[in-house]
Amino acid sequence: MHAHTYDYAIVRVVPKVERAEFVNVGVILSCPGRNYLEARIELDERRVSALDPTLDLATVRRHLDAIPVVCRGGDSAGAIGKLSPRERFHWLVAPRSTIIQTSPVHSGRCTEPDRALERLLDTMVRPAHAEAGDGNAGTT
Length: 140
What we know:
The protein is an alpha+beta fold.
């Protein structure tokens, strides 16, 4: 199977922009060679609330939910949905100074973009859990 180059950015929630603290909540991955543009969002409300208990999580979730819609394109994504997948990717990862931001864009190579996206979620978004037998199990 042929490997393709992909670009990705991590989606972050920055509750208090002036503090520059954030929680990684998703990944946007673009693989033009496979005509692939996908985002997966996993908002851990407990982790975000630890940074700002007053944050309006319903509004944050509504804005985060729009990211996969823009990735899919089409009429449901509005005017942005009519752009090419690569143009939508660049629009999504453009620097912003808002509560929802993306990391710088990084590149990789893969044969299966879905697997690459899942791996990125595991390593960059989902909280790490102690493995059984690592000496840390059961500690807080």
